[in-house]
Amino acid sequence: MYLLQKQASVHSSKFNQIFSRRKYGIALLFWLGLCLPMALPANAQLEETQTENAQPENVQTENAQPENVQTENAQPENVQTENAQPENVQTENAQPENAQTETAAPAPPAEEAAREADRPDTQAAEPQGGSVVVGVSHLPPFAIATKTESGTDWDGIGVHLWREVAEELDISYEWQEISPNEAIDQVENGTIDIAITAAATASAEERVDFTQSYYVTSIGIAQTAQRSILDNVRAVLSPRFLWIVLWLSALLIAVGAIVWLFERRSDEEVFGKGITSGLWDSFWWSAVTMTSVGYGDKVPTTFGGRLVALFWMIVALAVAATLTASITSVLAADDSGQLTQVAMLKQLKVGSVEGSNAAEALKEQDISFQPINVPEDGLNAIADDQIDAFVDDAALLSYINNNNFQRRFVIESTGLQARRYAFALTNDDQQLEAISAQVIQEQTDADWQPLLNQFLPKNN
Fold first, then answer.
1. How many other β-carbons are positioned within 10 Å of the β-carbon of residue 220?
2. Half-sphere exposure of 2 (CA within 13 A, CB side)
3. d(Cα 334, Cα 349) in Å, to the nearest integer?
4. Does residue 212 contact residue 440 with C-beta atoms inside 8 Å?
5. Which sign does the torsion angle of CA 303, 307, 313, 316 carry?
6. pLDDT surpassing 60 at residue 63
7. Rounded to an integer, what distance in angstroms lies between the CA atom of residue 354 and that of residue 316?
8. Which of 426, 430, 446 shows the shortest CA–CA distance to 171?
9. Each residue of 33-43: pLDDT tens digit?
10. Alpha-helix residue ranges (DSSP H) falling in 293-365
11. Do you find a cis peptide bond into 180, omega within 30 degrees of 0?
């Protein structure tokens, strides 16, 4: 009995110890339950809280099935049905992994501003209105290229004119050197926007548009400026001059012989002293009548003689004028004379640049010429008596003569193969009318003629 009481006492003591420990544990848990929610951060609460509209990336919902899970309404991966869309197709209920949903929060203003700052400013890099590409080629006196350390400096009639036009119309431009023969092609294909040394022709007008022309030139003939005594002697003894003298003498003898036939018996002292003397006196009369309408020392007295004399006086006026022009042309055409007609070159040694407009004009006139590489060589050939005349563009010859040969030669324009220099633009260019109007305006200004005289002096 004693043993039973002792064991009961021991068990009661252990029970009290266990109960006491649990009491303290329950109190500790209760205290932690009160303090722990207050100590959790706001972000942790957001991570533990899930809403129905914003599901986590890897959470499966009723409307968005996992990629590899097959349901009753979801067909196999490669089969497209009305209820199951392909993997990369965006639907209203199943959004792709990186897609932004309606419930996705917009980017913070600070991040959006940072992205805008990192984007390149493309509008600032491109000049306002763009820059016009102006094609220019070395073609004196319209465009003259001078090489410098910083590049190529341009001068000339066309260059000055374009600068004035661009300044008045506020056009930003940049130069691009091109070949003279490729100006129309490069304007047509858009390589350049405008060519300032283009020649306006009917065929080119079908491909591009031209402004009002600013200069018109033609084929010119270069010859020596002064004639020597030997040149004059050779001109007088030339076959053409002798041929004119022969035909004129035959005409005078014929007219004098007719008058002598009428007068040989009525006035023997004047026209009747034998055949030789009579024909000579009648020849003299016809000559002085043609040149000075007679001295009055010898006059016909018969009706037939006076009728012939009257007819000859009228005809002699036209003959004298024709004779003067013929002799002048012979003296001008021979060797170093001044020529104004291409046909006169047939009797001379002529030079021209092969392939030029002048060379083509000579071929059309059946005039043979010596091929010359550049116009400067042609003028040097005249100075060295290798050729008698050089044919090329009149404006170009005038410029070279003024600047390289101190006006040593005479440049005469023939009026053939006229070339009109103008600005060439692409078809339907919106600036055509404004530029063309400004070109006309510049040519009416007071400084236009001095500009032309600067490059092409009149007293060449």
1. 25
2. 0
3. 10
4. yes
5. negative
6. no
7. 45
8. 430
9. 655 555 444 44
10. 303-333, 357-364
11. no
